[in-house]
Amino acid sequence: MAEIVVAKSAGFCYGVKRAIELSRKAAAEHGTVYTLGPLIHNNDVISELREQGVIPADEPEQARGCIVIRSHGVGRDMYDRIAELGLECVDATCPFVERIHRIAAECGESDLLVVGDGTHPEVKGIMGWAAGSSAAVDSPEELEELTVSHKTFGTKSLKVVAQTTFDMCKWTDLQKKIKKHYTKAEFFDTICRATADRQSEAAELSRQCGMMIVVGGAHSSNSKKLADICAAECPTFFCENAAQLVREHKPGILRLLSSSKDVKIGITAGASTPAYIIKEVHNIMSEIIKDEAMDPEFMAALDSMERVRVYTGNRVKATVVAVNKTEAVVDIGTKHSGYILAEDLSNDPTKAPEDVVKVGDVIDCVVKKINDAEGYVYLSKKQVDTQQGMERIVAAKENNESVEGTVTKVVKGGVMVTSKEGASVFVPASQSGVPRNGKLEDIQGKAIKFKVIEVNEGRGRVVGSIKAAEREESDAVKAKFWEELEVGKKFVGEVKSMESYGVFVDLGGVDGMVHLTELTWNRVKHPKEVVSIGDKLEVTVKSFDPEKKRVSLTAKKPEDNPWTKFLAEFAEGDVVKVQIVSITPFGAFAQIIPAVEGLIHISQIAKERVTDVSKVLSVGQIVDAKITEIDEEKNRVSLSIKALLEDEADSEEAPAEE
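The chain above was modelled as a monomer; its predicted structure follows.
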């Protein structure tokens, strides 16, 4: 039976493990963080980290909020660029790489030679710390080319360092050749001890085995070096994960197994390979050895393994199979029973589980806790919603858009709002739209719109303004109002305020004024005789001034115009009974019919000369008068008591007919 041996040094090195832990911690704190380039050279891990909110960015300008410098490190100028952009920086540079940066920075006038891949980010970062000239070589051929193309390089003094993952044997060989060209060269042993141990163990193990499996990313420098070292001793298969091993190398592995049933198989892995992938490769090799690789159930299990991995922080698809008062039960496609507690379903504490999901829903979740022994896993939908909500919030701020949400609770200094997408937003009391003497509790539970006025993605803090959204909406309503306004347009508005000269009516975001004389056809001394604040009033636009934002209204209806009735019933020369309604120095006004008055001039009150109207007439007095003139254009009527008296006198003086 074939034997499988896994190298003790296989898998994550300290620097990689530290970078991943720092990134996950930053993502948990900020919701989303960006790494300057892929955090490690392993596609599986990069995909998993992306689901946790760790997003690769090619340049710092692509990041928002918080950026992580990966274990490879960067040049001095990159720190300056990050600072200028105002990004929060998490420095996950490997301590061993940092040591090389210090050596490079202290070179002074000496030139710096880096033995390693000149295109690798670690090497580029190291050269970015050199004060003087720097160069990189990866082979004796590149060294010879350097000495020809840069004749003055290293002639005064030279410091030589190695990429932390460089091949130990090649490093030893290149040192000898460098010394022949640069007699003043000073060498620093900078290959990571873990790398050296991993390479040494891989070389020893491959000499003992008939087959080696090297697990690592296709772009991982240290993984490819391991494959080269192993291939020099025995047949070697290089893969990124178990699925690739089966797809691409199964026939070759089976041929080797068929030739020797007792072959010893070694497995090692690069510094960017997580333990669970090494375990999967080990399990798959065990199945292949048992000749079960062709079994359909085995291949189905392999496909499932590639699709679903369950570990804390992983983002998975979940199908809701049951909902109760305290939780939702979900299926995530594994043997585990999945549960999402009520507090992990939504950012809105007022919502019960059945308000958030229903049976059959397929939702995105993050794994919070796993118990393999008992076969259950706890997940959170809220974490995914928060991350997506934050992305929507950032976009809304950039595009100056309003966001829909619900006021979920009152806190010190303001209220908390949960956006429709699930982000939690703080709205200060001054931006809540509630008056100073009002209660914030009055808007709790209400659906509102808000503007994003501040976002700190690094801290996951969002500040919003309900007032700003209301103001923008009000401005839009007002703009539309003025565009569509015209004389004669009718409105039904609410009386908002009252003065002695008239009332102000809300026409839908814009107030118009109804003058006292336009409230009714009847004579009144104060608006309160006709309307009260809060009354609905049908009005018509008389005139408007868009620049001064003024609208003049009338509540009078043409069909109720008392002048129409008056003109239909009365004419000049008619004698009418009138009631005195007011006394003036020049005469008295008398009501003919409601809302139609005529003037009895002081000269028309009596046959004798009158100097004081109040001594002859009094308010409320009813007298007979003759209509002497009707001015239809000005709606004026002239009355005369004197004319009646003269008519009577003329009648008395006239001789009786014989």
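The chain is about 30% helix and 30% strand.
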